Amino acid sequence: MNMPKFLLRCSLIAFAPIAANAAGTYYTGNYQSPQNRYTQKNYTTTQGTVYTQGTTYRSGYIGNASQNGSDNKQIAQQKRHTTQSAPTETKSGFSLDAGISHQFAEWRMEMDQAGSLLHYDNIGWNVFDAGGKYVFDIGNTQMQINAGFLYGIQSGESTMVDDDISNGGYWYAGYDGQNSLGETLSVDVYGRAMSIGKSSGGDMMGFNVGFGLTDFFKWGNARITPSIGYRYLKYKLETKENYGLSVTTSNSGYTCYSNNGGDEVQCDPSLLFFATDSNGDVTAVSLGGRANVDVDGDGYADVSGILIPTGVDYVNLLDSFYYQQSGTSHSYEVEWSGPYIALDAVYDINQNNSVTGHVELGLPAYTSTGDQPYRIDWEHPKSVKDSAGMFSGLHLGLGANYMTAVTDSVMLTIGFTYDYYSISGADSETYMNASYYQDRYDALKNAYADAGYTEAQMLEMDETAAGIAQLKSTCPGWVCSDDGEIDSFYKSMGIRVGFNAKF
Question: Is the pTM of this model over 0.85?
């Protein structure tokens, strides 16, 4: 025998099983190659078991191996498809959600008849909120009870503007007379003012309770829960370091000018003063800048104005002045409370990530209680109160969150909040300082009595006494009321981060 050929044949026979297995061919013998010997997924068993390199054990006949593998693959694909398409059911039990948010807000209040406009702009809130939800089964229906609480403190400083110039003012007096040129003058005088201050140190608090039908509507991966409930929100804002300007203006064609017939009208402030001549007659005089006038006869010009009659002994420039209020000038506590209906939606992206949305419509009551400590003619600490009953206001609440799993029971949430509250036609009450007015009335009454006049004669002769008497008559209990006087709104938008835990 040729020795080289013999050795070649022995080598081929010895290495044939290894080459066959390495090529991925089915092998049903008792031999295992070294790379498969220590794997837990593939091991030697009875004849008829199918093996593939690196695959999991599966039982079956050799003739059906290809078909079984195809069937199992199809079943796995169907399971994966079912898992991705079916929405996750909300499990019964208790869950807790808590977070912090930074909100930007604005509150505005306007008086319809008086025209006064008050607004706090660029309010910043740092808010903590926490809420719990309990889901339970009744038959085939899931229901839930939820409750929440929030507390916030004002962040930084915001600006308050109390505007009676561009949007209102109060009637001061009316006068008829002639100026020094013999022109007839009929004038209505209005007081107008504007103050601007800083607001800080405010706080807010709120809560809600509700009842809903959990996952009542389902579309694909989305689950929607309708609910009803009650919501309460209260916030307090104060103003300090208030600076203001009060200007008395005359409202007549004599001191108001248009731009050549256009729609812009300019009225000169403080252009009206009243002078008493030697006969004691009061004359209304408009200061139009025509001449420098020596009013008191000391040889120096006192005012710039038109020529006025001789014999003038004093001039009253009314009540135009600048003022500063270093302490608390305005303080308001506002409440919105009432029922709501809401829809909460959950969309499952996958088993670890979801998106939630919230839409809420409420019909709250409104109450605003204000104190202005510098007003000595008003009561304190409650100077004004504006109110409207339940179902009078409107509240729109929106929210959205992205939720991602941190553990099997805890999720991180990131989202935003938006709220808009409004009321139209709320009633207003002003609480007058009874002792302030009554003391002045009694002092006048005593003075006139000492001079031999009756109270009735005093009311005919003295405008101050008559005004106090009229105020007492029209404001029973020294509380002046105006129906439908107040329009107000509050809006806020915030960014929120929190956690949701299921138990």
Answer: no
